[in-house]
Amino acid sequence: MRIVQTVLQVISDVVFCAATNELVSVSKDGTLVFWDLLSGERSRSIDVSVVRPGRCTRLYLADATFLVVDFDTPDSLAYVYDVITGRFIHACALPRLPSPMRGFVAGSILCRQKCLGIS
Description:
It is a single chain. The chain has 119 residues and is mainly beta. The protein has a single domain, classed as Lipocalin, CATH 2.40.128. 0% of the residues lie in helices and 46% in strands. Strands 1-2-3-4 form a four-stranded antiparallel β-sheet, with no helix packed on it. A four-stranded antiparallel β-sheet has the order 5-6-7-8, with no helix packed on it. The chain is globular. The termini are far apart.
């Protein structure tokens, strides 16, 4: 087993992608990193720092094809990437409460905890 020792920033979340045999991490410095499991090295990365990810940013895999990055703030967008190419596909706005346990993926559907206003 190899240990990745080059990560200097706080990692918010990690997911395993069987389609590419990689771990994908998102860190507070705004970098999505794809880690090759055979070599233990970075295979590629995506800069998402413009969105300012925080400690509650979460990653989800949908249908082993799409990587969904769900950022911290209640008004933030969820960004969808092609997990094979790393290409940005879509950003979607789904209101919800900020919480570490705020979402999950069911097939190709991202489900988020909704915000409910009570007057």
